[in-house]
């Protein structure tokens, strides 16, 4: 016994109310779900459905579509009817689109009740329609669109300002007896976002949607999101997530899934263990790892594949993985379940790994 602290394998989740976004439970111990938003013109039904199909294949659980115009609102029934995953309508100002979204069968609506109250106080009618249709509502507070009153009070979008805004917006629905709410407080700075979500988790029992908003380009944004989400999720805070990187929604979904898989909150599918490279490299490892990842994109079985650049760590990692290749001298030594199964020229490594993957996943696992 080394006296080391025991780290729980998967985080214990914070107890929250549970709501259902279509058939996806959110909060109350349900698995953490991954969301993204379509980037198509919502009114272009075919393009939107095509993108929804792509993100679904990448592992998205819930899709949000922006509804800024009447044409978009009119497209919702067709989108909802054919979408394989629940659709949330994202509406900022126009209550009439909220009613259209509920009538269209959307599984959820994201609104900013502060805006609705200010311009056209129909919050009570929205609460009634949403309750009748069992449609949950997401309250979204972003640093960039914080209520002017709270901005003036707090001086900047501090964690306290974001939380006060979110709880005030919730109270506008609570006044009408509506509590089927999910909250997102987002900031581009992970530390502010973490602090805001911790405060919120202490202050209410609504499920929380996590997002580092406007997180940036793929590498920076994924890291900012992963850092913030991991800290919160390790404390059991967070019921759905979106990785808001400036990249295709499929990449956002993949990043979200990797974060959940890394935390043991979602079963792993494909994992590539590839070496970073060093002066001992005997192959273009960056290119090869990318080729292997692309070749196995969508592979239906969970596999760990080691792609290693030389014989120092190559055989060891390859033996530990389900499949592996250890490169050197223009060749790749292919491993399957710990055994060397063949050696192929470098140009045939990807094909050989695919071959072995099929053999492994089709064969019974043990005699
Ligand atoms: Fe360097 Fe070899 Fe390790 Fe890759 S496996 S990082 S090439 S020592």
From TrEMBL:
Give the Gene3D superfamilies listed for this entry.
Dihydropteroate synthase-like, Sulfite Reductase Hemoprotein, domain 1
Q: Which residues bind [4Fe-4S] cluster?
A: 275, 278, 310, 317
- Note the NCBIfam families from the entry: ispG_gcpE (TIGR00612), PRK00366.1 (NF001540)
This protein is called: 4-hydroxy-3-methylbut-2-en-1-yl diphosphate synthase (flavodoxin)
Pathway entry: Isoprenoid biosynthesis; isopentenyl diphosphate biosynthesis via DXP pathway; isopentenyl diphosphate from 1-deoxy-D-xylulose 5-phosphate: step 5/6
EC annotation from Swiss-Prot or TrEMBL: 1.17.7.3
Keyword list (alphabetical) reads:
4Fe-4S, Iron, Iron-sulfur, Isoprene biosynthesis, Metal-binding, Oxidoreductase
Q: Which InterPro entries match?
A: Dihydropteroate_synth-like_sf (IPR011005), IspG_bac (IPR016425), IspG_bac-typ (IPR004588), IspG_C (IPR058579), IspG_TIM (IPR058578), NO2/SO3_Rdtase_4Fe4S_sf (IPR045854)
Which superkingdom, per the lineage?
A: Bacteria
Q: Please state every residue range assigned to the domain named IspG C-terminal.
A: 271-356
Function text = Converts 2C-methyl-D-erythritol 2,4-cyclodiphosphate (ME-2,4cPP) into 1-hydroxy-2-methyl-2-(E)-butenyl 4-diphosphate.
PANTHER family xref list? 4-HYDROXY-3-METHYLBUT-2-EN-1-YL DIPHOSPHATE SYNTHASE (PTHR30454), 4-HYDROXY-3-METHYLBUT-2-EN-1-YL DIPHOSPHATE SYNTHASE (FERREDOXIN), CHLOROPLASTIC (PTHR30454:SF0)
Question: What is this protein's gene name?
Answer: ispG
Tell me yes or no: is Chaperone among this UniProt entry's keywords. no
Chemical reaction(s) catalysed: (2E)-4-hydroxy-3-methylbut-2-enyl diphosphate + oxidized [flavodoxin] + H2O + 2 H(+) = 2-C-methyl-D-erythritol 2,4-cyclic diphosphate + reduced [flavodoxin]
Q: Which cofactor does it need?
A: [4Fe-4S] cluster
Record's keyword annotation contains Membrane: no
